[in-house]
Structures
1.
Amino acid sequence: MFGRARSALFASDDPYDREAHIARCLGLQVAQVDLDDVLHQPDEALTHLPRGRGRRWLYRGWLLSADEYEQLYEAVSERGDHLVVTPDELAEAAYLPRWAETLEGHTPASVWTEGDDIAEAWELAREVLGPPPWILKDHLKSARPLWHACFVPEDADFAAFARVCEGLLDFRGDRFVGGFVVRRFVQLATLPFTAENRPVVDEHRIVFWNGRPVAHAPYYDVAAQPIDPSRFAWVGEAIESPFFTLDVARLAGGGSTIVELNDGGCSGLPEQLDPWLLYEAVAEDLTAHGDD
């Protein structure tokens, strides 16, 4: 987290140690919290924080649903501080039904259900998207590491679709959020590398802070032609969140598409993305607004 006293709050996990170090080097106050406490007893997770005095904290940690994040948000507020990103802003960037219509025409067409009714998802997808292939996820997260729980192949019948849905439900377990999202499959450009026995796609992650792209890198840690983030700068004005990431990919037939949006606090940074670029932007903003 980053706050009024130029502060930052991180989940206590190794992936964030380097970012916490960078934040400290830039003069940001850093506190770490245990993820299990954040999820199950947020008040306890914050007991070691300095006494609240109007700080603005920026959360960096593992993926939280809007409900889970709201627990943390309320616990911070009760201490007299607040989180930079509100629960509604997190949902705006992280939940596909919240951003898909805003980015219509720039991202694959999608439909979604409220709840886990597989038959409803099947009928809705066929009616609106036409026949498969499709990509499946819940409102918050996909199962991209498990292709059998994510990809609905061409000519799949209801039984085949149901197996993919059941794979997603099994993968997400009690963290299945909202309902099914079915997206039209588009063929992405690939790079001369493989991962998990599949070609690596030419995908990139752009980090937005206060409406502007401040850092970007290939999504996968392989050689790839950089993208021009200025082409997607308009998304910073379209999405009502101060901190989010945008995943874009080149299409096999030319051009590009927006693959995904995610809350910035819960997004991993690609290996080739320099965290200094993000935290310098955050620190500069806080200093410019007198948060020191």
Note: Confidence is low (pLDDT under 50) at residues 1-6.
2.
Amino acid sequence: MSGPRDGVCAVAVMAKAPRPGRVKTRLVPPLSAEQATQLNAAFLRDITANIVRAGASVPVAPYVAYAPSGAEDGFDGMLAPGTALVLADGEIPMPAGIDGIGRSLLHATTALLDRGHGAVCLVNSDSPTLPTAFLVAAARALAGPEAVRRVVLGPAEDGGYYLIGAARAHAALFRDIPWSTRDVTASTLARAAEAGLEVVVLPEWYDIDDRASLARLARALASASGAASGSQAGEMVLPFPAPATIACLARLDPAHLLADGTA
């Protein structure tokens, strides 16, 4: 992207380079490692396309915040046109108490603000049907000078979050968080309160990170894109149609994916 960026919110997908055995490992089984990698690539295509769609309503710049260093070529031809890359492997100096994915989240936030963006939203790579309206609402909440003490959080049904956004790099949001537990959102809200930050909470959505949620996704996409799944400002909110994910699932085994299982 060229030109001034201070009024533009960077929206970045947190992603590993798609390699078998390195991505979507909790979906193996029911998928093979290669199938999980293909599905991960489809998710990235849809999520970056979703960010581009949000740009029709609010000034945003699409990114993938990736790891590891040197993996840039792994995303070739995979992302929506106009999506840029930014390294976010967490291998930079960090305040005490920031570990795990928190290092990458703070790295991505800092790197994108350093590029001149007025705000940053980081989204996961597990929600290809996330309603575009949620991305638009997040970017709008972070516009204007009053947003410097504001955080936007999109809670996931499993206790984590699908989006976190801010107009400043608030390291406190990532300190001493019990990552990969049901307490991530609650702990993040507590850190925001301790730091005196206002929090805008988006509607809840779900991640696809195990067999049950994959079956849920397959059913939703098979039934006319899942119908309306929530409301915002009194209006029905539709899931993103996720065409790349639909095409990928069609190449797999829908009957197998839809089978009940807890693996």
Note: The domain at 9-254 is CATH 3.90.550.10 (Spore Coat Polysaccharide Biosynthesis Protein SpsA; Chain A).
3.
Amino acid sequence: MTDAQNHKQAKKEIIITGFGGQGIILAGIILGKAAAIGEHMESTLVQSYGPESRGGSCNAQVVISHEMIHYPYVSHPDILVCMSQSGYDKLIQQIKENGTLIIDQDLVRPARELKRDFFSIPATGMAEELGRVMIANIIMIGFLTAVTDVISMDAAQKSVLESVPKGTEKLNTTAFKKGHDYGLATLKGRQKKAAGQAGAIS
């Protein structure tokens, strides 16, 4: 591996997009804090809102790096997490060619002509099952942690507990684990499928 490739891998640029009231910015804070405190890396967060806060579009741009971050804005993310259709429609063309796309399948319908692989989780539906739709963002953080190598499970879980309102720690831990388990099951399913296809070819 070349030094340039190493340098590229040392930095991850992430956009989490959705609408006001989903806890999108909190999700960005949790990620950045997990990287900075739990993983001893550099991290930045830029947040942006549409004209309205609750119900309007918003996104969190997070940069995580082993080196000093000189520019905090993300235009072409390595990881794009979409929790609204409008966010997906606006940003899908910006994701890097080999980037990771993650969607809330309850709220986002990818375009039929989408030619890239992606991960999906019914985060909102799972949050509703737990009795609180507001924790869909924490379920998504658990899922993201499982399907990418951007931060460790321990660092993410600690960051969740330090960032959520007092008295909700148990519920948020359950939500995080639910998302994480779903992510691990998704990866396992993909590995089985790939092994089956390899067996069929050989």
Note: The two ends are 30 Å apart (CA to CA).
